[in-house]
Amino acid sequence: MILVNTDYISGKNLEMLGLVKGSTIQSKNIGRDITQGLKTLVGGELVAYNDMMNEARALATKRMEKEAEALGADAIVNVRYSSSAIMQGAAEVISYGTAVKFV
């Protein structure tokens, strides 16, 4: 599956199939939450949260691709990501784009 953040793929004629999306809500365990909270006192990268968000984006992307495959898509164009805090230590990540078929 080809994923691009543009509305075209060079050299390909595209038939639009529709919007596809994938989402997930992720959190870290209470132990990680406490250690990351302490890290904010001294500053620096919050590695556990960075890892959590990377995992969330990967899962959201996989779910979006699965939805596109069900439509018979060859690619997804205009891929975008959005995230929001659901509660302290938990975030929702959504990926979305337009499923297309090569003509």
TrEMBL record:
Coiled coil: none annotated. It comes from the Bacteria. It holds the Pfam family YbjQ_1. InterPro entries: UPF0145_dom_sf, UPF0145_YbjQ-like. HAMAP family: UPF0145. PANTHER family: UPF0145 PROTEIN SCO3412, UPF0145 PROTEIN YBJQ. This is UPF0145 protein SAMN05216249_11769. It comes from Acetitomaculum ruminis DSM 5522.
